[in-house]
Design goal:
Blueprint: E1 12-14, E2 17-19, E3 44-45, E4 50-51, E5 54-59, H1 63-74, E6 79-83, H2 90-94, H3 97-111, H4 116-119, H5 131-155, E7 159-162, E8 164-169, E9 172-176, E10 182-192, E11 196-198, E12 211-213, E13 226-230, H6 234-245, E14 249-254, H7 265-277, E15 281-284, E16 288-294, E17 297-302, E18 307-310, E19 312-315, E20 319-321, E21 354-356, H8 367-381, E22 395-397, E23 403-407, H9 410-415, E24 420-426, H10 431-436, E25 442-448, E26 454-460, H11 464-476, H12 481-486, H13 496-515
Parallel strand pairs: 5-6, 5-10, 6-7, 10-21, 12-19, 13-14, 13-19, 14-15
Antiparallel strand pairs: 1-2, 3-4, 8-9, 9-10, 11-20, 16-17, 17-18, 22-23, 23-26, 24-25, 25-26
Helix pairs in contact: 1-8, 3-5, 3-6
This protein binds flavin-adenine dinucleotide (FAD).
Length: 516
């Protein structure tokens, strides 16, 4: 597998394996070749002349760090993981994926949004939805997930060190705990899995109440009546959907002319239609020039001069790698201007026994890819075989309705002159779609005209992030559209949409053959 964030790194690939070549240091310094410590007996290393405290030290307990630590522990290595206070499980469990997805579930349930097709537009489970309603469910799930992570680390005998880690040398790390105590630990190999934090424009005075970033959502005191979302990226659109469903008047400001440009264009158009239906206003090609806090909220002024008053302004302006506290220079490393660390295809940094995984290495910055990168980095550090699967991951966007896809889009295939046919299935034509009251969902298959394999699967609507995995499995096994035509699916299900879309594609392909 090639690390999506791993771009070169000055390594040479020799017979399927990377070999360290002389590198220039991030700040122009030359690197000395360091023999990978995984080739040595566990716990011994010539670089410090003695036995290290751990075989593997992981910094950060998010999905990437957790899976790295557990993978190495399963291989019977002595492993420690460093994490800051109250952050076990990382951004994923505490401020990002899990709180936002739990909140989405609470919003869906309490607003009754996905039942309105059946019971009418006024249907709600609870008329007055408070921030407490959302926070209770979120707190419950986050606490449980914290517990699951702690228990998994304990069961696998991973030592958890509480505090903030920074390098003292390539094999030595200092851990400062919340009480100001310092502890020095050494390790043969290190995995940096420190993730990211929201990027904050210097010109904006965040007050954690009315002017917030995405981390601030979990601390809101009430459901805002109006909200400006600055940035139409995945996180911005997910929160815009949730608050719009709660009845908040949302304005999304995005400097580009379109949003989610990596997704299928028809799917994005369908999402915009749905969000506009929930009273979301889009301001594309506009930039927030300034935000002023007022006693009753805030006022955002756009570069074009427009003014938008709102109870809350949420910035969703990308994320910054959490590398500033690591003292990377002391390990012979450096980060780029966005705090990201460069790695090679084995997730090794410029210092071969120090690996970096997860959001801190950049794209695609997803929980699932971070987990896999962590596992693979630990395997490489422990001298285990490194698979070269080359599989691309699916992308899931938990907007309302949700989006998921794997493979390429129609635009990409057209740009690359790859001939394809499209097979479409609409939920409203499926019995399951009628039963659950989803009349807008759609599944689209992009099929190669050359060899009938699937080039892309795009899903919009209920269960999209689950359904996409059927397509992923077929694509991963090199299956063709004919497998889906011949397969028998449970009835009535949304999975049946694969068969319907496959029949649609093959009928069109038959027409092409007939006319040719
Ligand atoms: C609002 C939001 C929603 C998201 N939704 C999804 C989603 O639906 N699906 C999905 O796949 N992804 C989602 N993501 C992205 C996902 O959360 C990340 O991809 C994932 O958490 C990255 O994992 P990681 O291992 O890189 O580390 P993180 O989860 O970022 O954790 C890094 C940890 O390192 C710790 N750390 C940092 N510096 C130090 C230090 N010096 N010493 C000790 N510890 C340190 C931090 O305290 C933190 O706990 C979302 C993110 C956000 C913000």
């Amino acid at each position: 597998m090639v690390a999506p964030g791993g771009r070169g790194g000055g390594r040479l690939r020799v017979a399927g394996r990377a070999r360290s070549a002389p590198l220039r240091g991030p700040r122009g310094r030359g690197f000395v070749f360091v023999a990978p410590c995984r080739l040595l007996k566990p716990g011994t290393c010539p670089h410090t002349g003695g036995v290290h405290d751990f075989d593997l030290l992981v910094i950060g307990s998010g999905p990437g760090g957790q899976k790295a630590a557990i993978a190495a522990a399963k291989l019977e290595r002595r492993v420690a993981i460093v994490e800051r206070p109250n952050m076990l499980g990382g951004v994923c469990v505490n401020t990002g994926t899990i709180p936002s997805k739990t909140m989405r579930e609470a919003v869906l349930y309490l607003t009754g949004l996905d039942q309105r097709e059946m019971y009418g537009q006024s249907y709600r489970v609870k008329d007055e939805i408070t921030i407490g309603d959302l926070a209770n469910r979120t707190r419950h799930v986050v606490t449980r997930e914290n517990d699951v992570v702690r228990s998994q680390l304990t069961r696998n005998r991973v030592t958890v060190l509480n505090g903030t880690a920074s390098f003292l040398g390539p094999h030595e790390v200092e851990v400062d705990d919340a009480d100001g105590r310092e502890r020095k630990v050494t390790a043969d190999s290190v995995v940096i899995a420190t993730g990211t934090k929201p990027a904050r424009p210097a010109s904006v005075a965040f007050d954690e109440k009315t002017i917030i970033d995405s981390d601030g959502i979990v601390n809101l005191e009430r459901v805002p009546r109006s909200m400006v979302v600055a940035g139409a990226g995945v996180i911005g659109i997910e929160y815009a959907s949730m608050f719009a469903a709660l009845g908040t008047k949302v304005t999304v400001v995005e400097q580009r002319d379109r949003m989610l440009e990596f997704c299928d264009i028809e799917v994005v158009e369908a999402l915009k239609y749905h969000l506009r239906d929930l009273a979301v206003t889009f301001r594309f090609g506009e930039t927030v020039a300034s935000v002023e806090s007022r006693p009753e909220g805030a006022i955002a002024t756009l570069k074009s001069g427009k003014k938008i008053p709102a109870d809350t302004v949420m910035y969703s302006a990308g994320r910054q790698g959490m590398s500033d506290e690591l003292r990377l220079g002391d390990a012979g490393l450096a980060a780029d201007s966005r705090g990201r660390i460069e790695v090679d295809e084995f997730f090794r940094t410029a210092v071969p026994h120090i690996y970096a995984v997860g959001d801190v290495i950049g794209f695609p910055a997803l929980a699932a890819t971070s987990m896999e990168q962590g596992r693979l980095a630990a395997h490489h550090a422990c001298g285990e075989p490194f698979p070269a699967t080359g599989q691309t991951p699916p992308i899931g966007i938990y907007s309302l309705p949700e989006i998921s896809f794997i493979g390429r889009t129609e635009d990409q295939l057209t740009a690359d002159s790859v001939p394809f046919e499209v097979g479409v299935s609409r939920y409203r034509e499926l019995a399951r779609g009628q039963i659950i009251g989803d009349s807008y969902g759609v599944l689209k298959l992009l099929v190669s005209l050359e060899d009938r394999t699937l080039l892309g699967v795009h899903v919009f609507g209920t269960g999209a992030t689950e359904l996409v995995h059927i397509g992923q499995a077929v694509m991963g096994c090199g299956g063709t559209v004919d497998y889906l035509v011949d397969a028998v699916f449970n009835y009535p299900t949304l999975a049946e949409s694969y068969k319907v879309a496959a029949l649609d594609a093959t009928n069109k392909m038959r027409e092409i053959a007939r006319f040719s």
